[in-house]
Amino acid sequence: MLWTHLRLEAMRTPRSPPLTWVVVVACCVLAGPPQSGASPKKTSCRVQDGRADCSHLSLRAIPPNLPRNISSLDMSHNRLVGIPPAPLNLYPGLLRLDVSYNSVTKLDGHLCQTLPLLQTLSVAHNEVHLLKREDLSHCTGLVLLNMASNRLKLQGEPFSALKNLKSLDVSMNKLASAQLSSQPQLPSLVNLNLAFNDFTALKKDDFSFLDNSSFLQLLNLSAVSLKTLEPGCLRPISGLRTLIMDGSNMGILVLFKLCTELSRTAIDALSLRKMKLVTLTNTTFTGLQRANLTFLDLSHNGMGKIEEGSFQWLSRLQTLILADNNLKHLTKGTFQGLKALKELQLTKALVKSHTSSTPIIDDFSFEPLSALESLSLRQTSVREITGHTFTGMTSLKELDMSWSSYTSLRIITKQTLVSLAGSPLVKLNLTGTAITQINPGSFACMRNLTTLLLDFNFIQQTLTGKEFEGLGEVQELHMTNNHWKVRLSSTSFVNVPNLRVLTLGKSLNNTALNVDVDPSPFKPLCNLTFLDLSNNNIANIRGSVLEGLVNLKVLKLQHNNLARLWKSANPGGPVLFLKGAPNLVTLQMDSNGLDEIPEGALRGLSSLWELSLATNLLNNLRYSVFDDLKSLRVLRLQKNLITSVNPEVFKTPMSNLSLLVMDKNPFDCTCESILWFVTWLNNTNTTFVPDLGDQYICNTPLAYYNHSIMDFETLSCKDMTPFQALYILTSTTVMAVIVTALLVRFQGWRIQFYWNILISRTLGFSDANIDEGRHFEYDAYIIHAEEDSRWVERMMVPLENENCRFYLEDRDAVPGVALLESIIDNMRRSRKILFVVTERLLKDPWCRRFKAHQALHQVIEASRDSVVLVFLQDVHDYKLSRSLYLRRGMLRRCCIVEWHGGHKERVAAFHQKLLIALGMTNRLME
Ligand SMILES: *[C@@H]1O[C@H](CO)[C@@H](O)[C@H](O)[C@H]1NC(C)=O
Ligand SMILES: *[C@@H]1O[C@H](CO)[C@@H](O)[C@H](O)[C@H]1NC(C)=O
Ligand SMILES: *[C@@H]1O[C@H](CO)[C@@H](O)[C@H](O)[C@H]1NC(C)=O
Ligand SMILES: *[C@@H]1O[C@H](CO)[C@@H](O)[C@H](O)[C@H]1NC(C)=O
Ligand SMILES: *[C@@H]1O[C@H](CO)[C@@H](O)[C@H](O)[C@H]1NC(C)=O
Ligand SMILES: *[C@@H]1O[C@H](CO)[C@@H](O)[C@H](O)[C@H]1NC(C)=O
Ligand SMILES: *[C@@H]1O[C@H](CO)[C@@H](O)[C@H](O)[C@H]1NC(C)=O
């Protein structure tokens, strides 16, 4: 049946008849595959796979310079006036020759002699007039001959030699008779095209030349306005299976006669389009009662009335096409007798115009159609649907009422479609039927339904779930384009748990998925693979909205307002709603105002194949946001604000791409931003990048502004390499200098100090031998400010005994000895030098100038613990170093003793510490 349909479509002659199907097929074969791209106008023949295309070249002769072994030559649309055999001598292997659309006036009898293998010859749209027997007498191998649209005048028996011809087209030749010959011939003929000729009668013997053509199956008589049919005129072609009468203006009586003649044929498919058949009577098809017609096309007839019983004769009919008519009333009798009918097309067959009333379908009108599986009422208009409109269609699987206007469908209730209860309906198409409301249980009777289409309506309600009661088998629910009035609840889809496809694009109120809808309406849909939520201006969804959708493959979220959810500044952090759908294959989030992709937003999407983020505001993408997209093949990022394409972001997603669309971004054409990308583009041969030449434009820097990124000089980056090394070297040096300077500034004393110690040590001294090799008269040389002598007397002097002696300047200096000498000598004689540090001491010029120098000398030359500092006050290290050239850090910790006041226990502790500092604990113990 389908085959018949296709065959009919192919055979049909178009209304304005320039080409018959033979030409179409021949041209397709001859022309070869369409040339890719917008190639400039052809200036010479193209040769490919043994086919030479020399069409549209204004040629006046067959070109002599083609490969000799070509099998097909297309010379159509040139200026040939004949087909002289001589030039064709060069191409003896030709199987196909097309010289249509030239000015050929005559066929040459030697043509087929020159081309002994020729099978297909098209001479359509030329000016061939006389056609004689000799012209084709050698063409016995010819299988297809197209002579459409010439001025044929047949002389003698021109076709008598064509023993193998299967297809003959002589349409549009103003032939005055269908009789192409008086002798039986063309024994292999299958298709005969006589359309658009001038004859109006079929005489008894017209087809007698086909007496032996037992294979003839298809006869095209389009636009032949038959007036007379002699009985038995079709007898010679009783094997006929397909007859095309489109556009023939024959009237109902001649049609009746035609059907009678067809009754003795094997007719299977009959096309009666555009024949201005205004009515059908209950006898029109009587003749077909004995035939086995399975396909009847009555479309485009402006038919207003079909009498009851008109089709009663067609009990084997399987397909009836009544599209584009003007029927006013279908009754119980209209389809009476069509008990084998499987497909009925009533598309635009029942229409309302301003001059006519709304058509009516009576109750039980479809009852006779018990075998009907598919009914199309697309673009029809009917007054109402009652409880019995569709009753009796016990095999109906598909009902298409799309773009129809039925007032009963405005508000669908339990009763509206109850007449379909007896049908095992699988697909119901209610697209564009102005539905505003669906009440509970509206589809409850459709237990077998798998596909429900509700796109382009005005549904305006909160889906509670009751609307879809009984639809446990439904796998596809389409509800796009419902004017943003649909709201959802947690139970919206509880009754359709088998759903695979759910489309809600351009339908949801923008608050439909707000956080208060919890749990998510999609939660029951664990088998969902396709979800369309696009164009809804949704700004707010829960992170768990897709929870449990482990089978979801396609998610469409474009044209919403999800930017805020992915901002890192979003209160509570970015909402990573994709985590519920880890097996996504296609994700579309174009036009969402996105300026950020948070870390982890695309985590785990290792099956993702297509990612579309076009028309957003993306600029600096975080490193590794795309790192899990290991299967990506298609990436769309056009029209964003992307300036740089770095490997840190794009290396992984681009490693396997077959399509990249990233045009119209403001690229920054500098080495850092674009070098990697340009190199990648230049090296990739597996990724298709459309418009690379003219839509990938540099925005910065000025030097490249408005140039293609492919103009970027990658070499300029390579030249930079030595400079880069130099740069790194100099910057390191500068850094080192700065660090050293800072170190010296703040820790220089320490460096210098330890350096000095190191020097003196290497010259041979050490703490130990100093102690051993010298004899000390005093245990400590005490230096203090004059004002602190009372404290010294009270706290230090009492420690003296026969084992411990201090040198105190005021007390022990021998009068008469020079002061400087005395200091140096006595310091040498003391094991330690003890400073009693107060602010007052630091101001004492003696101390600062001389004693301190001497002490420092001692420290460096002798040992680090030859100096002891006793702090009576907290003195800043800085001041200490300014006046005494000493710092706390230069001395061992034990050599610094602090005085904390005169409490009894504290004094004891102080003394203990002091003796440790002086290295005298042992002696004290004794
Ligand atoms: C055709 O219809 C007429 C009335 O319109 C009726 O008298 C006649 O019996 C019908 N013929 C057939 C074959 O149904
Ligand atoms: C119609 O089909 C039946 C059974 O398929 C067959 O017996 C009969 O000969 C066919 N009639 C014609 C006219 O081909
Ligand atoms: C439903 O009808 C619409 C409009 O006529 C059509 O485009 C669509 O293909 C139909 N859908 C199905 C699944 O038949
Ligand atoms: C329709 O569903 C019923 C059970 O609900 C089943 O028995 C029947 O076979 C189904 N019909 C078709 C055509 O699938
Ligand atoms: C999901 O699909 C599987 C297999 O196709 C099926 O067995 C299962 O019942 C479906 N789950 C639901 C909730 O319908
Ligand atoms: C969405 O629903 C809310 C509350 O139900 C309503 O205020 C708002 O107008 C609706 N929006 C649209 C576009 O209908
Ligand atoms: C592109 O590749 C070709 C060869 O693979 C090389 O000659 C050319 O310099 C490259 N151009 C750029 C801009 O990298």
TrEMBL record:
<keyword id="KW-0732">Signal</keyword>
<dbReference type="Pfam" id="PF13855">
    <property type="entry name" value="LRR_8"/>
</dbReference>
<dbReference type="InterPro" id="IPR041015">
    <property type="entry name" value="TLR3_TMD"/>
</dbReference>
<dbReference type="InterPro" id="IPR001611">
    <property type="entry name" value="Leu-rich_rpt"/>
</dbReference>
<keyword id="KW-0812">Transmembrane</keyword>
<dbReference type="Pfam" id="PF13676">
    <property type="entry name" value="TIR_2"/>
</dbReference>
<dbReference type="GO" id="GO:0038023">
    <property type="term" value="F:signaling receptor activity"/>
</dbReference>
<dbReference type="InterPro" id="IPR026906">
    <property type="entry name" value="LRR_5"/>
</dbReference>
<dbReference type="Pfam" id="PF13306">
    <property type="entry name" value="LRR_5"/>
</dbReference>
<feature type="signal peptide">
    <location>
        <begin position="1"/>
        <end position="38"/>
    </location>
</feature>
<keyword id="KW-0391">Immunity</keyword>
<dbReference type="GO" id="GO:0002224">
    <property type="term" value="P:toll-like receptor signaling pathway"/>
</dbReference>
<keyword id="KW-0677">Repeat</keyword>
<dbReference type="InterPro" id="IPR003591">
    <property type="entry name" value="Leu-rich_rpt_typical-subtyp"/>
</dbReference>
<feature type="domain" description="TIR">
    <location>
        <begin position="776"/>
        <end position="918"/>
    </location>
</feature>
<keyword id="KW-0399">Innate immunity</keyword>
<keyword id="KW-0325">Glycoprotein</keyword>
<keyword id="KW-0472">Membrane</keyword>
<keyword id="KW-0675">Receptor</keyword>
<dbReference type="GO" id="GO:0045087">
    <property type="term" value="P:innate immune response"/>
</dbReference>
<feature type="transmembrane region" description="Helical">
    <location>
        <begin position="725"/>
        <end position="744"/>
    </location>
</feature>
<keyword id="KW-1133">Transmembrane helix</keyword>
<dbReference type="InterPro" id="IPR032675">
    <property type="entry name" value="LRR_dom_sf"/>
</dbReference>
<comment type="similarity">
    <text>Belongs to the Toll-like receptor family.</text>
</comment>
<dbReference type="GO" id="GO:0006954">
    <property type="term" value="P:inflammatory response"/>
</dbReference>
<dbReference type="Pfam" id="PF17968">
    <property type="entry name" value="Tlr3_TMD"/>
</dbReference>
<keyword id="KW-0433">Leucine-rich repeat</keyword>
<keyword id="KW-0395">Inflammatory response</keyword>
<dbReference type="InterPro" id="IPR000157">
    <property type="entry name" value="TIR_dom"/>
</dbReference>
<dbReference type="InterPro" id="IPR000483">
    <property type="entry name" value="Cys-rich_flank_reg_C"/>
</dbReference>
<dbReference type="GO" id="GO:0005886">
    <property type="term" value="C:plasma membrane"/>
</dbReference>
<dbReference type="InterPro" id="IPR035897">
    <property type="entry name" value="Toll_tir_struct_dom_sf"/>
</dbReference>
<protein>
    <submittedName>
        <fullName>Toll-like receptor 3</fullName>
    </submittedName>
</protein>
